[in-house]
Design goal:
Blueprint lengths: L1 E7 L9 E8 L8 H16 L3 E7 L3 H9 L3 E12 L2 E11 L18
Parallel strand pairs: 2-3
Antiparallel strand pairs: 1-2, 3-5, 4-5
Length: 117
């Protein structure tokens, strides 16, 4: 039906508390709540692992993904115009941010899920 995953927001060490999230739902299962279940579970896990912010870049147009992320509390922070070429045209990408927790003064290292099985 679909999947959701997170990856490092940036490679440099100072960004290690931020992750970029992605979700894909098969077209046969759009508007059935699958995306909400997948992203909600992912966000819960990211919070438990100690991450501070989750980011989502959504190639436009994608009203369904925009609605999903906004309904989960993500806030729009900006648009990269004509940043990617997809489906025969240049696409804008809108960026959304969700605070998983207040940024701590002295953050504890998040769990690195790359080696977790």
């Amino acid at each position: 039906m679909g999947y959701a995953y997170a990856s490092p927001h940036r490679q440099r060490a100072g960004y290690r508390w931020a992750v970029e999230t992605s979700v894909f739902v098969d077209a046969d299962h759009h508007r059935c709540g699958v995306g909400r279940v997948l992203v909600s579970a992912l966000l819960t896990e990211l919070d438990m692992l100690g991450y501070v912010t989750a980011w989502a870049g959504i190639a436009l147009p994608n009203d369904g993904s925009v609605r999903l992320h906004e309904s989960l509390g993500f806030e729009k922070v900006g648009v990269y115009e004509a940043v990617g070429y997809k489906a025969g045209g240049w696409r804008d990408v809108v960026w959304y941010r969700l605070a998983l927790r207040e940024p701590p003064r002295d953050p504890v290292e998040p769990v690195d899920w790359h080696g977790v099985t």
